[in-house]
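> forwarded from #structure-qc
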């Protein structure tokens, strides 16, 4: 089995010119009696403005060996040290390389295949026929249209399954999920375009603790309710999930808040003393031991714990009166000390949020037990609970489908956690039976390093089931990883999941190898760093993550303002469509224009820039090309039909730069696929747009006085640019608007 895809040489026009140059150089070397075997013939673009061709250093490389052989034959190297030998060879190699380059250049020129062939300073400079090459390039672009730059389908003879967009039901999608969706879509598109047989798949998290918590909260507090106005049922379930975590974690959050005060607030002891005295004087019955406990902890700087309270009812009035101290602290701080004022206000705001639900405190232990009991309803497949799960899962799936459709995520195969749960449980039992897994502290685990015989901690230990027999993520992922290879005959399986899961997927792979599943070596984790907004890191568990829906809506709103300003005469419906395409494109581009190991700070204003490294700049270049062709009264078909009579002689530097960029597209697609880096395509389309703008400003197309033959050639170049820009954007999943 091949675990890594092979690369297929590019088949574009320039690639063919370069291959012809390489073949000619090899033939000339052979005629000279020089055999370089499998050594590559290097080519690089000619560095001279206004030229189109390749330079090779092959003569300089070969000349060194020839000179040394000659000196050996003459006996001139006898008794010399390595340093002296190298010096003597270098003294002669310059003239020898130029002499060889000249002989090779004469032989290559005699073929008549190239516009020019020259030897200079030991280099062989091969110039391509600009007119003929450009005509072939433009013809190829226009004839292939939307497939220009693509290899033939399945030409790599390699089948890869790319799993991405693993969203969860019963949770709201947040902006952090966007990177996964955008990266997975782009990787899949590029893989297809490069000629790999690509199976797109997703793995929906439709069961697990987050689902149990959400449904517990729904059953316990919201069973007879409808979503708030303007909220979809899917988004509402996400809010219930956040609420469930806040309820179950409430004591932990209150104690964390109190313990932070104990550590950081020097005046807390005196303030707490006043709070406790006030508490003692209230009508509410309080336990004296609890008061002593609180004061003692504060005095000694020790952490409070829920177990330390004799009477949990003391916490409620105590925490209520604590607000008096925090409000007083805000007033007493020197208002010119802005940092201290901000900190005091932040503490007061956090207290207000926690105090708003202070009545939750006594119920947390009972809620925790209810959540565990709800988990058992699923494990026992209680009919009423399973029916509720099916219903609410449908609500979430409707919303996920809308997200996938809008961001271009299409799947050939859908997996879900619920469908592999039993397979995973059976596999875990088999791992135990075969001695690969064992019971440790009541938990079924695989001690991976020990089983692999590793002395240094590398893969650690992975639990594969809970102690009560319920499943974990690992239980299901082990079964799913095996199913992919067994059911779909793939050569490679790629997980697109954030980089924080790297160890986890290494563990899954190693357990499968221990299990004897040879295909596991073809698993690949394509990790990426997280996404933040300028405000900081997000967390869906705490509910402070900007929702995908909110970020999308805010970006579209900004884009609409820009479109209305730039194109006020455009019909309202068209303005809204263009704004949508610009906004979604801007989001996608930001998610793809950074390497996976870089954190993304998503700033909507930067993402919507028409000047910088952003999607609107590139989309606008495409729209400008469309407008030029519209004003010129020509279509792609017209330009293609006129190519026989179109002359591309003596293009200006900006035209040549643009042509060279267009010609590089097929090779860039292959590179992006083999390295799994959509970043190559984002950089490519940005550079193409930039060169087109340079061309637009320096090479008039429709202005009066432009020679008709030049106009015809430039319209062809504009058309080829438009097609290539659209194709590059399409690989990224970005729409190429015809007007903006």
């Amino acid at each position: 089995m091949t675990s890594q895809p092979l690369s297929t040489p590019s088949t574009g026009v320039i690639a063919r010119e370069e291959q012809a140059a390489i073949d000619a150089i090899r033939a000339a070397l052979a005629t000279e009696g020089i055999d370089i075997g499998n050594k590559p013939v290097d080519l690089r673009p000619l560095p001279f403005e206004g030229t189109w061709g390749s330079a090779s250093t092959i003569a300089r490389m070969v000349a060194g060996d020839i000179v040394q052989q000659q000196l050996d034959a003459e006996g001139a190297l006898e008794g010399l040290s390595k340093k002296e030998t190298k010096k003597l060879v270098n003294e002669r190699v310059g003239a020898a390389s130029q002499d060889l380059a000249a002989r090779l250049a004469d032989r290559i020129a005699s073929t008549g295949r190239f516009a020019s062939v020259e030897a200079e300073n030991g280099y062989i400079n091969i110039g391509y026929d600009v007119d003929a090459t450009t005509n072939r390039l433009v013809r190829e672009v226009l004839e292939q249209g939307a497939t220009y730059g693509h290899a033939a389908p399945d030409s790599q003879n390699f089948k890869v399954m790319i799993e991405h967009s693993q969203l969860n039901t019963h949770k709201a999608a947040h902006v952090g999920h966007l990177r996964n969706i955008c990266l997975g879509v782009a990787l899949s598109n590029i893989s297809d375009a490069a000629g790999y047989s690509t199976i797109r798949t997703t793995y929906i998290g439709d069961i697990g603790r987050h689902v149990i918590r959400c449904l517990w909260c729904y059953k316990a507090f919201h069973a007879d309710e409808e979503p708030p106005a303007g909220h979809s049922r899917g988004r509402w379930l996400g809010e219930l999930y956040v609420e469930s975590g806040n309820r179950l974690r409430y004591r932990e959050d209150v104690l964390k808040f109190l313990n932070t005060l104990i550590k950081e607030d020097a005046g807390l002891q005196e303030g707490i003393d006043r709070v406790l005295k006030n508490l003692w004087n209230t009508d509410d019955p309080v336990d004296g031991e609890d008061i002593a406990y609180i004061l003692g902890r504060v005095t000694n700087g020790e952490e409070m714990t829920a177990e330390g309270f004799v009477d949990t009812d003391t916490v409620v009035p105590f925490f209520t009166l604590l607000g008096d101290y925090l409000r007083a602290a805000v007033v007493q701080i020197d208002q010119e000390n802005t940092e201290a004022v901000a900190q005091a206000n932040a503490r007061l705001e956090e207290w207000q949020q926690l105090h708003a639900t202070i009545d939750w405190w006594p119920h947390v232990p009972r809620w925790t037990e209810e959540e565990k009991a709800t988990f058992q309803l699923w494990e026992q497949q209680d009919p009423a609970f399973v029916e509720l799960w099916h219903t609410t899962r449908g609500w979430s799936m409707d919303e996920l489908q809308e997200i996938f459709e809008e961001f271009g995520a299409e799947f050939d195969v859908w997996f879900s956690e619920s469908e592999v749960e039993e397979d995973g449980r059976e596999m875990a039992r088999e791992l135990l039976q075969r001695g690969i897994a064992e019971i440790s502290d009541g938990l079924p685990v695989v001690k991976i390093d020990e089983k692999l015989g590793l002395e240094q901690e590398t893969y650690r230990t992975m639990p594969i089931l809970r102690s009560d027999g319920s499943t974990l993520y690992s239980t299901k992922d082990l079964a799913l990883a095996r199913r992919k290879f067994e059911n779909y005959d793939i050569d490679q399986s790629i997980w697109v999941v954030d980089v924080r899961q790297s160890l986890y997927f290494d563990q899954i792979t190693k357990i499968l190898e221990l299990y004897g599943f040879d295909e596991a070596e073809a698993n690949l984790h394509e990790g990426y760093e997280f996404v933040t907004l300028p405000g900081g890191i997000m967390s869906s568990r705490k509910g402070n993550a900007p929702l995908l829906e909110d970020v999308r809506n805010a970006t579209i709103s900004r884009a609409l303002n820009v479109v209305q300003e730039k194109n006020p005469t455009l019909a309202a419906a068209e303005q809204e469509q263009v704004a949508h395409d610009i906004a979604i494109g801007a989001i996608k581009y930001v998610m793809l224009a950074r390497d996976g190991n870089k954190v993304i700070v998503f700033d909507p204003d930067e993402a919507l820039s028409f000047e910088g490294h952003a999607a609107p700049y590139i989309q606008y270049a495409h729209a400008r090309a469309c407008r030029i062709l519209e004003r010129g009264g020509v279509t792609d078909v017209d330009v293609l039909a006129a190519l026989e009579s179109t002359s591309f002689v003596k293009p200006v530097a900006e035209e040549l730069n643009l042509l060279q960029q267009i010609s590089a597209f097929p090779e860039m697609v292959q590179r992006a696929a083999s390295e799994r880096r959509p970043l190559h395509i984002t950089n490519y389309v940005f550079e193409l747009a930039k060169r087109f703008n340079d061309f637009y400003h320096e090479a008039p197309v429709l202005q009066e006085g432009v020679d008709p033959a030049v106009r015809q050639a430039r319209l062809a170049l504009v058309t080829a640019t438009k097609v290539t820009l659209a194709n590059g954007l399409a690989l990224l999943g970005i729409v190429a608007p015809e007007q903006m």
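QC bot note: The CA atoms of residues 32 and 405 lie 61 Å apart. The first strand starts at residue 44 and ends at 45.
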